[in-house]
Amino acid sequence: MMNMPRPTSSSPTPPHSFSAHIEHQLDKATALCTQQGARMTAQRRDVLGLILTHAHPVGAYDLLEELKTAGRRPAPPTVYRALDFLLEHGLIHRIERLSAFIPCTNLRHCSHTHEHSEACLHTAQFLICRDCKTVTEIADTTVLETLKHICKNENFVIQSTSVEVEGICAHCAAKHSATHPSKEISSQGA
Amino acid sequence: MMNMPRPTSSSPTPPHSFSAHIEHQLDKATALCTQQGARMTAQRRDVLGLILTHAHPVGAYDLLEELKTAGRRPAPPTVYRALDFLLEHGLIHRIERLSAFIPCTNLRHCSHTHEHSEACLHTAQFLICRDCKTVTEIADTTVLETLKHICKNENFVIQSTSVEVEGICAHCAAKHSATHPSKEISSQGA
DNA sequence: GAAGAAATGTAATAATATTACATTGTATTC
DNA sequence: GAATACAATGTAATATTATTACATTTCTTC
After folding, report:
1. Other CB atoms closer than 10 Å to residue A161's CB: what's the count?
2. What are the backbone angles phi and psi of residue B93, rounded to the nearest 5°?
3. What is the domain extent for residue A129?
4. What are phi and psi of B168, to 5 degrees?
5. Do B154 and A127 make contact, defined as CB atoms within 8 angstroms?
6. Distance of CA A39 to the CA centre of its chain
7. Angle, helices A42-53/A60-68, rounded to nearest 10 degrees
């Protein structure tokens, strides 16, 4: 029963298979982990892969469901442990307002594996669209610089930050004004 | 039996009684609501009063418990509805990372009732101490200005923001170095 | 004082997250 | 290559936070 035909021998259960593109990102992530002396196990890889397949933030229990289809029946701690690991190693972000998770953009556009975690800390800022649920990670260091400055003045030792902006993205805003050609601001849909 | 010596007559159940100081803040809050055409009911006043009595962020279910001692047996929606109201009117903030609530500082130091909600939007930035759990609201407009600028560039319509910095506050940092034999003041009750 | 709107009461349940402990897998040392 | 120690995972139960749906009450306005 234990004969899994896996040359590299790493998983008791076969991992999900993802698109070549995502597999590539997963390989990058694995390299980052190795570099940090951390182990990218099959479980963690699967969770990260699933997060990467989503265009939008994913909740822990969504991931749990998706893991189940693989023939396994994991429980919440399985997912939360993987998420904790991925968070710790800067591979994903948690969107506080949504209790959901997205990949770090640096992973998506990965080429510079070196100052990855540094960059992650610097750019953990998000625009959340209430309409289409898309979350965009902002590449801007000004906000963090300001926060650092403030904290320095207050002698506050900064460990982590979250900056989240909720509103309507350009695309959805355009959609709306297209739907209502004449009147724009009068309707309040909530 | 129904003779509550309350001129304005608003509560079916007697509201909590708070310290003069907090009552004063509650009066301010009530004034702000009136100004906005909103009703500060006994229920909402009680919840806000309870939040004001806490030195630290309070969870919804903590508030629920505290409301119960008054002889009532409210259910979660009661508290959440009050919280929603208080949030909408800029009287409290929700700390996303803690799923907890704190009064808006403008309420604590209230004298300028006029541009209250404006100011609130501008300063919804918090320093969260992991050690003593104290949350400090930062009075700084730079961060929001930066965010506005970014959003303008992206054509993102900004509706609300949260900026949270987690770390160790000056006081706790000092406490820690005081643990190591040297100098510094070390007395403090939570 | 009746109609309609706002607020509250109530029961049930959904969604998110953690604890505690047993088991398995992996790396290392002898 | 067995013994060990530690990291990772499995599993069951439960804690915490939040919402839905609908009945009832209260308030405002006419």
Report:
1. 23
2. -125, 155
3. 20-179
4. -120, 125
5. yes
6. 19
7. 110
User: Per the domain annotation, does A24 fall within a domain?
Assistant: yes
Above 70 in pLDDT, residue A49? yes
Number of domains present in the structure of chain B:
1
Find and list the nucleotides of strand C having atoms within 7 Å of a protein beta carbon.
Answer: 6-13, 15-20, 24-27
B147 → closest Cβ in A154, A157, A165:
A165
SS3 content of chain B, % helix, strand, coil (to 5): 45, 15, 40
Q: CATH number of the domain that B141 lies in?
A: 1.10.10.10
Instruction: Mutation target for B interface from A122, A130, A131, A157: give the one with most B CBs within 10 A.
Output: A157
Which residues are paired to A157 by β-bridges? B168
What pLDDT is recorded for position B175? 82
Residue A75 lies in a domain: yes
Within-domain flag for B92: yes
Judge contact between A74 and A39, C-beta under 8 A: no
Is B129 labeled as ligand-binding? yes
B58 assigned to some structural domain: yes
pLDDT band at A69 (very low <50, low <70, confident <90, very high): confident
